[in-house]
Amino acid sequence: MQLRYDPIKKRWVVFAPERGERGDYLILQKEVEDDPEYCPFCPGHESYTGRSLHEDTGIIDGKKVWLTRVIPNKFPLLKVEETDGIKQYGPYAYSSRLGAHEVIIDSRTHGLKIFDYQMDDFIRLFNAVIVRISDLRKDVRLKYITMIKNCGKVAGATLSHPHSQIVAFPFLPNEVKNIWKNLYEYYYVNNRCLVCDILNFELEKKERIIVKNDFFVAYSPYAPRHSFEVHVVPVIHTNDFIGLKDYEKVKLAEVMIDVLKRYNVALDGASLNINLINTACNIDIPELEFSKYKERFFHWYIELIPRINRIGGIEKGTGVYVNPFLPEKCTEILSGINII
Ligand SMILES: [Zn+2]
Ligand SMILES: [Zn+2]
Q1: What does UniProt list as catalytic (predicted)?
Q2: 337 φ, ψ to 5°?
Q3: Per the residue annotation, which of 101, 163, 226, 299 is the catalytic one?
């Protein structure tokens, strides 16, 4: 039993490895695939989803077809058309649902699992994310725009056709604002980026590294809330995903493919969330001197969170998570898998 502190999120996590030995502590659920005949994202069903906001095309059987397309979400959480400001209601506040919510259809192939994505699938996905975030940033009302991916129904996916989401908020979500705040405070004291320092420490210790190349490192964080959580981080300090160069996209895809193949074997294709933790836009955060220092203290990364833990009352009631697997054990399991 050990308590560990996460300096990026500034929170404690309880590690209880004896629970990991009890198989019933983990959810490893097989997915049932949707019928492609009724899938709105399948080729030939474009009329269900309407116009594309972005398309990446290719030639199949001599015909030009889309390979990846971005569409407005049919059931958006947030919409760009909404214009009302924030209103007070007694001690509360409310506003119209200003924002944006788009779907990236990653591939034409119905049922393609994230574990089987090839290099091209990831490159087209990264390009779609960059194009859409860049475009949405022109709307100065939007402050945080990111990509999330729910892989599998336990992770929140409603359709089994491979897809991702772009979500744009008119406010700063607390979870991300806390990360910026913690990184800013570390920078203020040390004059260095915390993520860079963590990366250097991990590369020196070699206890939690899953895979690395010249541009990206995938490692098990020291105090993750979730078993088998992995962070993929650019080696060179950089604060904005949309600045990714073409050769970096290839290197990022290499690392993602490697980790996901390991997950597929170790966790038997369990559901997972993939979250981009990126910089804010169209805003200053004066207490963090954001416009002045964001490029120095913030370092983007991607979180991969397998949805295999049961979340109980301790987590919901106190925000303190119990993790039945130490990250060193997860690293050992993932690294030990032969993926060739
Ligand atoms: Zn489909
Ligand atoms: Zn850094």
Answers
A1: 163 (tele-ump-histidine intermediate)
A2: -85, 130
A3: 163
Ligand with minimal distance to 235 CA: 2
101 belongs to the catalytic site = no
Query: Residues at the annotated binding site for Zn(2+)?
Result: 39, 42, 110, 161
User: Quick one: fold of 2-335?
Assistant: HIT family, subunit A (3.30.428)
How confident is the model over 42-91, as pLDDT tens digits?
Answer: 999 999 888 899 999 999 999 999 999 999 987 777 777 767 678 899 99
Ligand with an atom nearest the CA of residue 48: 1
